[in-house]
Amino acid sequence: MKAYWISPGPAGTGVELRETATPEPKAGEILVRVCAASLNRGELLGGVYGAAPKPGGGECAGEVVKVGEGVTGVAIGARMMGRCGGGFAELAVMDAREALRVPERLTWEEAAATPLTFIVVYDMLIAQGHLAAGQWLLVTAASSGVGVAALQTAKALGARVITLVRVRIGDLEIGSVPVGKWRHLTPQEVRALAGEEPDASAGSR
């Protein structure tokens, strides 16, 4: 099958199309025919020059073509999305425990861009943070993938959200906070905007 591999080089990250062996799902895994894969910023960092090339694509969405031993409840042809090792390929393997069914309303592209960020956000805000309706959430780096997912999830839960992004638009004021240059808001400024201490915070660099 055809697959893209990513490797760091002297002039930056390189992407190479290769002919590789078709993967076989092991026990607890599913094999999907990839319909869409997403590109995450971390993959373009590539690693240290001279490091071994690695399959590209950390998440994808596609149709199940084969299941490994012990996998139940997943039918051939099912629309699934999830993390994987090598989503920039014709076929990819997923851990059946983490794979998610693709809702009918999502396109393949939307489904492929969902798993990594929203699994992280679910773990932060719900499993560990116990964010609830009416509580405040501070989202730093709100324009990042995790930041956008955190904003959407918090609003769906009915939480109140403050987002922080870098801006430079003249003498723009956000609330009572003047923003003339790029800078981070202080904890005191965040409390002033919210009127109280945020109940949780989320974000990424």
Write up what this structure looks like.
The strands form 4 sheets. The protein has a 5-stranded antiparallel sheet with strand order 7-3-5-6-8. A 3-stranded antiparallel sheet has the order 2-1-4. Residues 171-182 have low confidence and may be disordered. The protein has helices at 41-45, 108-112, 115-128, 145-157, 187-194, and strands at 2-9, 12-19, 29-37, 54-55, 59-67, 79-83, 91-95, 100-101, 136-140, 160-163, 173-174, 177-178, 200-203. 30% of the residues are buried. It folds into 2 domains: 2-111, Medium-chain alcohol dehydrogenases, catalytic domain (Quinone Oxidoreductase, Chain A, domain 1), CATH 3.90.180; 118-203, 3-Layer(aba) Sandwich (Rossmann fold). The chain has 205 residues and is an alpha+beta fold. The chain contains 5 helices and 13 strands.
Which properties best describe this structure?
Quinone Oxidoreductase, Chain A, domain 1, alpha+beta, 32% strand, 22% helix, 2 domains, Rossmann fold, three-stranded antiparallel β-sheet
